[in-house]
């Protein structure tokens, strides 16, 4: 049976089944595994042994320990992606933030000192995918305003600009484009989003930020809409080469 055959029989999306089969981004429930076993004709002792493993498993991905400061559903998807395109609006994207910047953001979201420390720890753990090579391509569009909002702390602004330059120059997998404030209103005004790509047998998905928390979007039409906005943002943003020059000057002038 193909992935689509199974998804149709169970009335699941192909993406959901793909998430279960990779074992990275979807922790299947007993009911889901039971449905698969029934469809595949697994019965008797073998079925019970597999369901026992599901029930007794106490393994949890690391990100479930930080659900108070991040979306474990999104990070689970992020961990399994092979490519990512992200626009974070008035913030520097999470994977590019220096710890002090993350702490400032955490406090702006209402977290106390302990919450800020946990958010920093979670972001540092997430950022390992940029260095491990598991994420083959990372492309970010950053608003100039995201950096200017911390201009009151020149050392922080310098450190953040330097970090972005470092990642974009030392890793061939990281591409950054700066979107000038002078560009005016643009389609990104609808809000931050990320587009995640997976292995070729899994559909892309998007993650859209909102005030009540982010939403994972899997429909082809919605993902295409995000791609269209992304295309417009990369068109009006500075080129990757010009972006590095702007960021270097920004760091020097501070």
Describe the 3D structure.
The chain is α/β, with parallel strands linked by helices and 254 residues long. It has two domains: 3-56, no CATH class; 62-253, Endonuclease, Chain A. It has helices at residues 3-10, 14-22, 30-40, 44-56, 72-80, 99-108, 113-126, 128-132, 144-148, 154-170, 220-236, 240-253; strands at residues 83-87, 137-143, 174-179, 193-197, 205-208, 215-217. The chain has a six-stranded mixed beta sheet with strand order 3-2-1-4-5-6, with helices on both faces. Helix 1 packs across helix 2, helix 3 (30-40) packs antiparallel against helix 4 and helix 10 (154-170) packs antiparallel against helix 12. The longest helix has 17 residues, at 154-170. The model has no long low-confidence stretch (mean pLDDT 91).
Radius of gyration, whole Å: 20 Å
So, CATH architecture of the largest domain? 2-Layer Sandwich
Give the proportion of residues in helices: 40-55%
- How would the global form be characterised? elongated
Number of strands: 6
The proportion of strand residues reads: 5-15%
Domain module tally: 2
Number of helices in the DSSP assignment: 12
Termini, distance in Å? 60 Å
The arrangement of helices and strands along the chain is: HHHHHEHHHEHHEEEEHH
Report the CATH topology name of the largest domain. Answer: Endonuclease, Chain A
Q: What class, by secondary structure content?
A: alpha/beta
Biggest β-sheet strands, sense, barrel: 6 strands, mixed
Low-confidence stretches: none
CATH class categorisation of the largest domain: Alpha Beta
Strand order of the largest sheet: 3-2-1-4-5-6
What's the quaternary structure here? single chain
Average pLDDT taken over every residue:
91
